[in-house]
């Protein structure tokens, strides 16, 4: 029934379009023919008593005999329009061919009605686009979440709160870029297509390059191994913001393609990086959200306070009684079973430790830096000199989630080659998230890379602070083909 109603309404609009054409009116002109300087609707209020030209989408229509009112909306606001038959004797009847959703340009004097509402008393008007499909709210609405994502343009059009999320997200990334450039970092671009997917523990997407007749991987990090090659090449501070791709599951905090920032800082270690990251987060979050205080689920946190540092091993002992320096794989599996956490039978100690930590992490409010990671979960980080079983790494913990990862980069080519080899053995045994050997990167390290600290943060941080799933904060999230299973 809803579909039949839609088709009836759609056909009525098409009939109106044909009527406009019969009158010699082009319902899709390429530009506004009315003369004058076009102003945004938000500027109309400041033009009281003046003649103005503005344009937007018809948002409502109210007819009262020889007078019609419309609301006109653009991306800056909404304004009321007044059409009087006595002022538009030859064109007033054309208004009956207009519908909610049509785009219109109008000229007229800005007045204030008896009720005090700013209004444009229209003297000239021109249709710019005829809408032939009524908005969902006028027939059956956007029924479910997937439909909202599939017709995201309508979701954004009809819900200003949704649109506001993406305005904040734009400020989030713009301010991060602004902060890093101000600190002397150079923005770079590194390959999206790679012969070897590196820089993270993740399963990559595979594609085929026809011209070279080779299979390639979509990058799983924001150019980590490429940016470290730039450190070898003599660059001092670099960063990149872009899309990366991981062929893994979808949940509230994970997508297959998403935006990430990574920076690399020569002659700095993880402690230097932590200070910079805390300063950067406070700057970016204040710019994007206008506050540093948040309530996220059961967590109340203030990013403006001094961030504490917590130790990986000690935190696990405190919450589970498991000492990872002594525990066997079976010990960790028993604790995971007790907590009803999933893991693969083939998982080695590093993967099991990581699963146990993620279970504990949910109860940590933060903001906090997690340090003291075991080497088994950090194949690219430099070992702690006086305790080589652990590495110089940190993660940012906010509201039970990991929202940033950094470390002193491993620049010992012999150690790196050994860790790559261990990771490759894990891949051969079926661990698709284990890292691939990258002999060219090892060769680059053999030429020498200075002490370097790197850090990465994804749009997960924005989603968590916005109180949304990460899918909700992507403009056009990937969906199955319409009608697909």
Strand order of the largest sheet: 7-11-12-21-20-19-16-15
The percent of residues in helical segments reads 25-40%
Mean pLDDT, nearest integer? 92
Number of strands: 21
Overall geometry: elongated
Secondary structural class: alpha+beta
Fourth CATH level, the homologous superfamily of the largest domain: Bira Bifunctional Protein, Domain 2
Q: Which architecture name of the largest domain does CATH use?
A: 2-Layer Sandwich
Task: Bin the strand percentage.
Answer: 25-35%
Q: Uncertain spans, ≥5 residues at pLDDT below 50?
A: none
CATH class of the largest domain: Alpha Beta
Q: Can you tell me the number of structural domains? A: 2
Features:
485 residues; alpha+beta; OB fold (Dihydrolipoamide Acetyltransferase, E2P); BirA Bifunctional Protein, domain 2; 2 domains; eight-stranded mixed sheet; five-stranded mixed beta barrel; 21 strands; elongated; magnesium ion binding; lysine-tRNA ligase activity; aa-tRNA-synth_II/BPL/LPL; Lys-tRNA-ligase_II_N
């Amino acid at each position: 029934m809803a579909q039949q109603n839609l088709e009836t309404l759609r056909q009525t609009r098409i009939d109106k379009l044909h009527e406009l054409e019969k009158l010699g009116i082009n319902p899709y002109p390429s530009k506004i023919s009315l003369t004058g300087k076009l102003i945004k609707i938000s500027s109309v209020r400041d033009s009281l008593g003046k003649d103005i030209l503005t344009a937007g989408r018809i948002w409502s229509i109210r007819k009262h005999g020889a007078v019609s009112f419309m609301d006109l909306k653009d991306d800056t606001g909404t304004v009321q329009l007044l059409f009087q038959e006595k002022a538009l004797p030859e064109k007033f009847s054309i208004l009956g061919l207009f519908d909610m959703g049509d785009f219109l340009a109008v000229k007229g004097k800005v007045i204030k009605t008896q009720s005090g509402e700013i209004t444009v008393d229209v003297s000239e008007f021109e249709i710019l686009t005829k809408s032939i499909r009524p908005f969902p709210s006028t027939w059956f609405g956007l029924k479910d979440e997937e439909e909202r994502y599939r017709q995201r343009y309508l979701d954004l059009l009809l819900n200003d709160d949704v649109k506001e999320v993406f305005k904040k997200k734009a400020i989030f990334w713009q301010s991060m870029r602004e902060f890093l450039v101000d600190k002397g970092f150079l923005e770079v671009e590194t390959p999206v297509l790679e012969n070897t997917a590196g820089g993270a523990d993740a399963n990559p997407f595979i594609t085929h390059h026809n011209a070279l007749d080779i299979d390639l991987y979509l990058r799983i990090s924001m150019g980590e191994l490429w940016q470290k090659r730039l450190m070898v090449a003599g660059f001092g501070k670099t960063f990149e913001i872009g899309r990366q791709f991981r062929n893994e599951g979808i949940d509230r905090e994970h997508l297959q393609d998403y935006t990430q920032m990574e920076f690399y800082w020569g002659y700095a270690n993880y402690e230097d990086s932590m200070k910079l990251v805390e300063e950067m987060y406070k700057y970016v979050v204040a710019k994007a959200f206008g506050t540093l205080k948040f309530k996220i689920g059961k967590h109340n946190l203030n990013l403006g306070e001094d961030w504490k540092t917590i130790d990986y091993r000690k935190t696990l002992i405190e919450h589970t009684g498991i000492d990872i320096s002594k525990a066997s794989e079976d010990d960790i599996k028993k604790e995971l079973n007790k907590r009803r956490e999933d893991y693969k039978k083939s998982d080695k100690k590093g993967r099991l430790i990581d699963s146990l930590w993620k279970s504990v992490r949910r109860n940590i409010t933060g903001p906090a830096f997690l340090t003291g990671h075991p080497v088994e979960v950090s194949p690219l980080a430099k070992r702690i000199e006086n305790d080589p079983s652990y590495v110089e790494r940190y993660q940012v913990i906010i509201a039970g989630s990991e929202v940033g990862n950094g470390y002193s980069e491993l620049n010992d080519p012999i150690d790196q080659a050994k860790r790559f080899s261990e990771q490759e053995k894990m891949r051969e045994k079926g661990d698709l998230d284990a890292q691939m050997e990258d002999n060219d990167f090892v060769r680059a390290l053999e030429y020498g890379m200075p002490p370097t600290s790197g850090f990465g943060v994804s749009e997960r941080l924005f989603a968590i602070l916005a109180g949304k799933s990460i899918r909700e904060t992507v403009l056009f999230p990937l969906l199955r083909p319409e009608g697909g299973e």
